[in-house]
Amino acid sequence: MATTSSKSKLARFWHRVLGIGDQQSQGETASNFEKVRTDEQAFESVDRGTLFVPINKIVGSVGRYHDFDAHFRPKGYDSDERLNGIIKKMGEGKQMPPISLYQIKDHYYILDGHHRYAAARELGHQEIRSCILELLPSKDTIENRLYRERTEFRDRYHLSASIELTEMGQFPILEEQIEAHRQFLEQERNRSVSAADAAADWYKTIYLPLRTLIVSSNLSRSFRSRTADDLYLYISLHQWKMDKNRTYGKGIDKLIPKNMEEFRNKMAQHTDQNYPEMRREINVFVLMNVEGRHENKIMDKLYALEEVREVHSVHGAIDIIFRVKLMRDLLSSDAELISQFMQSTIRQWQGVVSTQTLLPGVSRVKDL
Predict the structure, then answer these.
(1) Whole-model pTM?
(2) Which domains does the chain have, with CATH numbers?
(3) Is residue 159 within 8 Å of 198, Cβ to Cβ?
(4) How does pLDDT run across 108-121, given as a tens digit for each residue?
């Protein structure tokens, strides 16, 4: 029979391993599978096979209530011995059977394999091999409609991951790209190409390279409510289908050709480690008039700004000239970025009378 001290030790262990403890005292409760399933009306099932699932996506348990309490802790000292045995085997590199999970949207619930899951967490594993049965949500919400659109698109083309668009009805645009690419591949290879094969090639040679450019260039910072996949859709739609003339962001045409297959060929020349960034440097000269008694202080503040590269006090109609170097993504305008910089810094300073910005057209600079 387990002693009080061994039970306490066991409770502390499971609190550490599973990230749980006296959840009621913490104002928390374990994720309730049956409640989530009912709320989401998730009864239609799809066998997803055996995959590696991130440990942090597993949020609850299904069944096995005779072995685990309401807080997902094992009952009895023998559970501790069993767990230690599994940890020892896994630590020695022995292959363990996959655990069994139910999936509801992006969360997973353990049906079988609680000890293997706990052992994997104790050993610091990030993923665990799992047999997955997904329960598709059918409750009529925008979130669920989007989820089903994403899932149906992924399954239709046998893609390895979902594409996270945040607006409904946009996947037909991607389907058009895949179909156009399929027709191109048939001409290139002089044989028939299935939709699944075309989608796999599109995903690897068109979608992923452009998405990598977007992510590595931190474009999402300018569009907080959008995903990288939303930006992929926007850029590809405007570059390869709508073909609208732009008054700004023209630099994107040099990086992303107007033809999707030309972009594919261009990206084939790069590895994902050396894709060019979707950002470019702009230099701006600013002419400033200031109140005389603030001139020295303003010069010091300008010089302290990371973006300011040169500061000059001059005689004549202008008091100060300085040069600013900014980095902008290719979807933004120069005017927008300059205005944001000026408004957030210089135009709030005491003693600044007026400013005028000059953006060079053609520049020639000698290397010193």
Answers:
(1) 0.61
(2) 4-139 (3.90.1530.10), 144-267 (no CATH), 279-358 (3.30.70.920)
(3) no
(4) 999 998 889 988 98
